[in-house]
Specification:
By secondary structure, the protein is of the alpha+beta class. The chain has helices spanning 17-27, 40-48, 73-83, 146-155, 163-179, 216-219, 224-227, 230-236, 255-267, 286-294, 314-327, 343-351, 363-375, 377-381, and strands at residues 12-14, 35-37, 54-59, 67-70, 87-88, 91-92, 95-100, 104-115, 120-127, 133-138, 182-193, 198-200, 203-208, 239-243, 248-252, 274-280, 302-309, 334-340, 357-360. It folds into three domains: 22-28 and 104-225, ATP-grasp fold, B domain (D-amino Acid Aminotransferase, Chain A, domain 1, 2-Layer Sandwich); 33-100, Dna Ligase, domain 1 (2-Layer Sandwich); 238-374, Rossmann fold.
């Protein structure tokens, strides 16, 4: 059974990774020593206390683990500024964890959770980047027995000289699971270093809400700011971001249209290169367009929005764009191309509005106009 990374907001309180790793360390699970930062300056100062390179890890309650490697303290500061101005799966990034980078040979995953289909606690281990996965049911009165841990270690092809360490980690993870009333306790990834050590590089603890009355220390760790991000998380389900190496953002309703927009930029005889490629699913309303713009990397120099209006009117999309500019003013050129139902009338209406938005009728014209706008900064800034 593959490791699941589910999170039921109504039943569990998830801890941030840095809280989880603090509890792991207290329980005897090996972790890296890191420093928390809430501003770019704090991130740079933390990095200067480590040997470079370091890892900048965004602290959000999402399933995904987002991090970047930095070679210098200055680059750490730049990465931090970008991360702290973005959202991940609808969560705003408020804090970063700065840790030293280690030389990793292999990575594994380890999780303990209650299997509702079987009515028992299950421990699952996986070797990442391979299909080696195995699991064992646990007796809650006994916990993780050594022979079961060794079975898991063998199943994921862990060298036998590390089995004793692996047994220790699985048993201590179970102590966390039981001791903190967790619905799920996981290490992802569990790294095998070149030096032959096992270290928990990432981890998650989901705590049973109904047990918080006796877990007073854990209850105090609840992140109210993140919980207030619920509406933006729901919107973010309709906004998908891919990152390329350039600095021009492409926003479109549909994956194919988004990639076609990026290809048009890449193939144009200009200096424009696609950076953020953002797909909006469903109707591009104000909330989804706003979420897309809030996902833009800090190095974005210009934006092309390419919308095909089939199940909704281009007039509605045009009005949503104008409402958006009232909420969020952009400091970079924005070119919009609408196609489909009522597109011609929407283009005429947008062109007549007193706004910095450019409305065009073809994708080629959008690329040409954006290139011209960026090459003539004086005209744009005036």
């Amino acid at each position: 059974m593959p490791i699941r990374d589910s999170f039921n907001q109504a039943e569990s309180m998830r801890l941030h990774e840095y809280h989880t790793k603090t509890l792991f360390a207290r329980s005897g699970i090996p972790v890296l020593s890191g420093e928390l930062a809430g501003t770019p300056g704090e991130a740079r100062a933390a990095a200067e206390r480590f040997r470079m390179p370091v890892v900048v890890n965004a602290q959000v309650l999402a399933d995904e683990r987002v991090f970047r490697v930095a070679q210098t303290p200055l680059f750490v500061e730049q990465i931090a500024a970008e991360m702290l101005s973005t959202q991940i799966a609808g969560y705003r990034v408020h804090q970063l964890l700065i840790e030293p980078m280690i030389d990793v040979a292999r990575e594994f995953a380890l999780a303990i959770e209650f299997d509702q289909s079987r009515g028992q606690v299950e421990i699952t281990a996986s070797a990442l980047n391979s299909r080696r996965t195995c699991s064992e049911l646990l007796d809650p009165f006994i916990g993780v027995q050594a022979y079961k841990s060794r079975y898991l270690a063998s199943g994921i092809d862990l060298p036998s000289e590390l089995w004793a360490d692996f047994v220790n980690i699985t048993q201590r993870l179970y102590q966390c699971y039981v001791g903190y009333d967790a619905t799920r306790a996981s290490i992802l990834p569990l790294a095998l270093t070149r030096a032959g050590d096992l270290i928990a590089l990432g981890g998650k603890l989901d705590i049973d809400d109904s047990a918080l009355f006796r877990q007073t220390e854990i209850a105090a760790l609840r992140d109210v700011l993140a919980e207030n991000d619920l509406p933006s998380r729901q919107v973010a389900e309709h906004v998908r971001l891919s990152r390329l190496l350039g600095d021009i953002a492409c926003i479109a309703n549909g994956a194919g249209l988004a990639m076609m927009t990026a290809d048009s930029l890449a193939n144009a005889q200009s200096t424009l290169n696609p950076g953020a490629v953002i797909e909006i699913t469903g109707e591009p309303n104000v909330e989804r367009l706003q979420a897309a713009l809030q996902s833009l990397p800090s190095n974005t120099r210009g934006v092309i929005i390419n919308l095909f209006c089939d199940r909704f009117s281009a007039n509605d999309a045009a009005k949503a764009l104008m409402d958006l500019l009232v909420l969020d003013s952009l400091s970079v050129p924005l070119v919009v191309r609408l196609a489909g139902q009522d597109a011609e009338r929407a283009h005429e209406w947008l062109s007549a509005q007193p706004t910095t938005l450019y409305s065009v009728t073809s994708l080629a014209h959008a690329v040409e106009l954006l290139s011209h706008s960026l090459s003539d900064k004086a005209t744009w800034q005036s």
